[in-house]
Amino acid sequence: MPESEMTLRYGMNPHQKPARAFVEGGTLPFEVRNGSPGYINLLDALNSWQLVRELREATGLPAAASFKHVSPAGAAVGVPVEGTLAKALFVDGVELSPLASAYARARGADRVSSFGDWIAVSDVVDLPTANLIRREVSDGIIAPGYTDEAAEMLGKKKGGNYCMLEADTSYVPAPSEHRTVFGVTLEQGRNEIDLDDQLSNVVTKDKELPEAARRDLMVALTALKYTQSNSMCMAVDGQVIGAGAGQQSRIHCTRLAGNKADLWFLRQHPATLGLKFRDGLGRPERDNAIDGFLRDDLAPAEDEFWRGAFSEVPQRLTAAQKREWLDTLTGVAMGSDAFIPFRDNIDRAAMSGVKYVVQPGGSVRDEDVVAAAEQYGMVMALSGVRLFHH
Predict the structure, then answer these.
(1) Which residue in the list 41, 131, 230, 345 is annotated as catalytic?
(2) How many whole angstroms separate alpha carbon 91 and alpha carbon 133?
(3) CATH homologous superfamily of domain 5-172?
(4) Pair 36, 175: CB distance under 8 Å
(5) CATH T-level fold of 194-266+326-382
């Protein structure tokens, strides 16, 4: 049964002791099914659980998130994974339930960053989902429940110490939140904003928002709500493909999100799918090798490292080849957690196939930003709602 308090090994760092998690006047909103969560595990678990729960409510589809350091490396809903994407995500020929598809997409948004992730899923963990999680390097998971077969499989992970939390789906948090920093307690109302209403104010000449675009904009907005600010998020086909989190400049957020989206799509390039790895190379090492193959900014030692992962050293894609491939990526949705201050964000977004944009608006240069969106044939909605998260 859930308890009101639990002792943690330590806080954010091993020297920060004592540490505990507790609820005053109630019980913790989860039960520990296996393992022993730490301080950062719980930060990831509680944030990611809210994200997938809200995605489930918004879309009606099973949802999953891959969290690292209190931000989603990826988030997705259960759209089927097929063709070249399945091969790029290492799930071709694998049985995928809708929930497993959501996790495969969430983990596949940025597989390098998802190494050692915390997982959240909106639905009871089934065997196909557990089978995917079993073979990935992960710290733990929070879910509303587990089938017996899934619980048995995951309970053996990490030598029997894999952390498994079962969320209390009936739990309703207090309307206000508190945080203590340097002995000062800060209080605010919870961010309970309903994101369903944020797409009605379309300000570009093109006002058509297909259902798939609305879904992807909701994925981006919900991910932003639980991403460390400043942040930008790009999504397509029901999943995050690039998240730029925690940057001081919005253009840096957009570049980071765009670069990640580009790498996600370049993983599906025929040259990438045809890479020949040396025998016995693990999945994390393959992810690192693919990342090295696709990047142009490696130090000589890094370059030498990734080349050693292949049985046949591949010829790098040229800038022109990459651009030709990236120009086929279309229909991407992009969300911004605060107003877009300059058109340079739109210029960069266009390079990653962005067609649909939602942002709060409110900048003195809103007209310039909208004009830039119209120049690229984008559809832009102004939500009027900022989604900072710290």
Answers:
(1) 230
(2) 12
(3) AICAR transformylase, duplication domain (3.40.140.20)
(4) no
(5) Cytidine Deaminase; domain 2 (3.40.140)
In 246-293, at which residue ranges do the beta strands (DSSP E only) sit? none
pLDDT tops 80 at residue 314: yes
Find tokens 């964000």 and name the residue: 345
- Residue-wise pLDDT for 165-182, tens only, equals 999 999 999 999 999 999
Give the pLDDT confidence score for residue 1 in this predicted structure: 52
Give the integer Cα–Cα distance in Å for 125 and 170: 18
Average pLDDT, the chain: 95
Domains 194-266+326-382 and 275-316 agree in fold = no
Domain ranges for the chain: 5-172, 194-266+326-382, 275-316
Annotated active-site residue 230? The verdict is: yes
Q: What is the C-alpha end-to-end distance of the chain, expressed in Å?
A: 31
**Model confidence pLDDT, tens digit, residues 58-89:** 999 999 999 999 999 999 999 999 999 999 99
Catalytic residue among 47, 68, 269, 322: 68
Cα–chain-centroid distance for residue 118?
11
Residue 51: what residue type? L
Question: Is residue 69 among the annotated active site residues?
Answer: yes
Q: What is the 3-state secondary structure (H, E, C) of 307-329?
A: HCCECCCCCCCCHHHHHHHHCCC
Active site residue 17: no
